[in-house]
Prior knowledge:
The complex is a heterodimer of chains A (404) and B (166). In chain A, 49% of the residues lie in helices and 10% in strands. Chain A has 404 residues and is mainly α. Chain A has one domain (58-403): Cytochrome-c3 Hydrogenase, chain B (Orthogonal Bundle). Chain A has a three-stranded antiparallel beta sheet. In chain A, strands 4-5-6 form a three-stranded antiparallel beta sheet. In chain A, a hairpin with a 2-residue loop joins strand 2 (34-40) and strand 3 (43-50). The radius of gyration of chain A is 22 Å and the shape is globular. Chain B has 166 residues and is α/β, with parallel strands linked by helices. Chain B has helices at residues 6-17, 40-49, 110-121, and strands at residues 22-25, 31-35, 57-66, 71-80, 85-94, 99-101, 124-126. Classes of the chains: A mainly alpha (404), B alpha/beta (166). Chain A binds chain B through residues 2-4, 51-52, 55, 57, 59-61, 63-64, 66, 95, 220, 222-225, 236, 238, 243-244, 326-328, 335-338, 340, 347, 349, 351, 353, 358-359, 361-362, 364, 366, 370-371, 373-375, 403-404, and chain B through 27-28, 30, 32, 56-60, 62, 64-65, 75, 77, 81, 84, 86, 88, 107-109, 111-113, 116, 120, 133-138, 144-145, 151, 161, 165-166.
Amino acid sequence: MKHNQPVYTDNDPQSELxxxxxxxxxxxxHGVFQNVLQLDGERIVSGVSxxxxxxxxxxxxxxxxxxxxxxxxxxxxxxxxxxxNNMGWHMTVxxxxxxxxxxxxxxxxxxxxxxxxxxxxxxxxxxxxQDTGATTTFLYLFQYREHIYEIxxxxxxxxxxTNIGRIGGLExxxxxxxxxxxxxxxxxxxxxxxxxxxxLNRNRIFIDRxxxxxxxxxxxxxxxxxxxxxxxxxxxDYDVRVSEPYSSYQDFDFEIPVGTSGDIYDRYLVRxxxxxxxxxxxxxxxxxLKAEPKGIFxxxxxxxxxxxxxxxxxxMEALIYHFKIVMGEIDAPKAEVYHAVExxxxxxxxxxxxxxxxxxxxxxxRRPSFINYSMFAKMSEGMLLSDAIINMSSMxxxxxxxxx
Amino acid sequence: MAKATNTEVIDLLGExxxxxxxxxxxxYGLLTFSTTKDKIVEVLSFLKENAKINFNFxxxxxxxxxxxxxxxxxxxxxxxxxxxxxxxxxxxxDENEPTIPTAxxxxxxxxWMERETYDFFGVKFEGHPDLRRILxxxxxxxxxMLKQYPLEDPNRVDKKDEYFGR
Lengths: 404, 166
């Protein structure tokens, strides 16, 4: 089959099967990807996934950009939780450069990352609800994603593609309004989430549509490289935050929820519980911040940390460092490093090879959506078309991360 | 199950493969070594099946092009979830004859990762069930991540690297 070309039903009167082009722009698939399905009535016989519709060659571009200019590229991977990608990239470079980050910065980063994890899970779970017909729940919870974006706006000025932080820390401290908004969110969101769960968790229609649908065994999940909530819903308690703690996650007390059967209902429950855990982590981080010295928002590494504009204009040292960083005169070690963070969809890895030049020699993103999605066509075989749609929603495939 | 360490892993591998493993390093604590094209599947399946080290999870497959050496390095990242350690296996292959046996019989996830690597580097994975391009269009004609292909039209005069200090 040729790429980019729709497949038409051959109108063979002997054939009982119908060919359906689900996508590339189908309102039921939340993103730009195509599945050519052979249908026997409502049941899928076989499917072929075609991806790459929004491929933007980020890995090639990254080979021509200095480190600090790669952050905006990572924004556009999983654009539902950009801050996690940003932080993951900054931490990769910090690992390469052996930069020690102060605890306060770690905690601020944890707050941002957990907020974006909640935003990511809100999208996935409300969309599952929406696709099973529960529009009310979708509207109830989705507004809290809006409140999270307002917090991001207060922290960095942007909402969706955030570009939060710099190599070595954050670009500015959280202001009082940001803290007030986080506190307000921590007070209001649990109420809404409780209501959301009350509407869905024991809802007969919702359970009938999701429980026992698209079950996945642990062996299959591991073999297909699943990570994140999808893998955990099959009962494997793998979470990068716990197995290889980064950004001081070892200081926090939280649980990894796991499911049993890996069906859509379990994925939904795992994501819901993770939102509770994230709220818990943010609360702990807010407590811990009180004990940390105020005003620290970056590590003291002037040769790598891009200084603020007002300092560049008024301070000679800052101007020199700014010039050196922008013109690529910093010495980064010739080395290769792999760093993974727990993204909204699973293990988001950065494989960076540096040859001492101004730009990475090679940068590869291990994108969980791409690897999780490879099972979709295989899973759909024998499934009802309407179940395959919810299955896709519950895998939370973000087209930006799928295609890079 | 007992947790394995990098030293144990490399001892076990050395016992089994000896001279077939070389360039053993540990950058940032991640065990890295190279092997040959003929041995790669054997090495990967040993890492996967051995009950003591149990690298059950294939994290990633990708490639790196080194035009000065005329080589393409195919890089595998494996993860042992039981021991909580990772390892990186590299195979350097000739850029003019980029073939390597597939790992898709060991892990299903290797299927798309190898398709991606083929798409961008032209590495032909022998025995792969469905080796097609995945992100680029079929009639692209080149494998764009190879270093000889520039990012932008080289005839443009306004975007020369030298004007940007790169």
